[in-house]
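Troubleshooting entry. The earlier prediction with magnesium ion gave an output that would not parse, so I re-checked the input for stray whitespace and re-submitted. Clean input:
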Amino acid sequence: MAEPTPPSRRSRRDPEELLRAAQAGDRAATGRLLSLVERGGAPARAVGRLTFAPSAAIERVVGVTGAPGAGKSTLTDRLIAEVRATGRQVGVLAIDPSSPFSGGAILGDRVRMQGHATDDGVFIRSMATRGHLGGLALAAPEAVRVLGAVGLPVVLIETVGVGQVEVEIAGKADTTIVVVNPGWGDSVQANKAGLLEIADIFVINKADRPGAAETRRDLDNMLDLDTHMGAWRPPILSTVAHTGEGVDELWATVDAHVAHLEATGELAARRRRRLEDEMGAVVLRLLERDVRELEGGARWAGALDDVVGRRVDPYQAAINLIGSVEGTPPAR
Ligand SMILES: Nc1nc2c(ncn2[C@@H]2O[C@H](COP(=O)(O)OP(=O)(O)OP(=O)(O)O)[C@@H](O)[C@H]2O)c(=O)[nH]1
Ligand SMILES: [Mg+2]
């Protein structure tokens, strides 16, 4: 027979207990809640349930994305100071979807955001995905809700990279800042469309380097060609993150963007859309998982054989598989 878990250990792991401790200011408990979210499974679900309702406590989520080394962490460090100057507490998530481990990111970001290491009003955490169903794109909004629930009303999300997944994660924010550098143009040509879609504010960081004016022209031309733009044309700002130049104006622009979203009703619409995306993504993942697990995977393998053998087309094979789980509520 298994040894019963000692009470102290059990309470350390219990999501409800962790949440209470985290809300009382225990940052280690906040870190453990985020670990549970990362790892997925039943404990992550419990955290998700517990932190969902209080997520109303989240005032603002700001995404900072851009190519590796663009200066996102240095800039985020400066933005933390702007938020703290208003007296509010701030949570920071640093996410690197391309890396299965958060170790490297943790080190880099800790160094870059060292200015706030002793400030209790700041919580910084790097995230990787281990078992979370749907990966970081689904773990990120849950992590944001954890931060809101423990009393960090402003959340900054730093996402490395300019690929599809990064853009997807960055798009979970109320305001998304896309960081580029002088001489940017050609390097991310392929992803310009994706960046354009999510950018609420463009920042040309490292404006102390040559080529900033050309980059601004590039971005301006790109925005001129954008036919889908609404009432908000993404402003193009310049910063020098390591001196702090331009950062106050950047935060003022974030304020202006949020005010615009509120005035137009777009903030509520965006948040509704994000929740819909999240719910839809979970439906897809759960359904696919159930289908893959039919008869221990045998049905999936058989269907694949039928498709490869050209006996059944992929669409029909999918319909057949889904039909086999319909009416059966997901086991988990
Ligand atoms: N010249 C100059 N260097 C900067 C500026 N901002 C950041 N840097 C430097 O650029 C390097 C990368 O900065 P980070 O803040 O780590 O960039 P990052 O985008 O977070 O990098 P990853 O998270 O690794 O993608 C560091 O050496 C910074 O000191 C700037 O405005 N001008
Ligand atoms: Mg960084």
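This one parsed fine. The mean pLDDT is 85.
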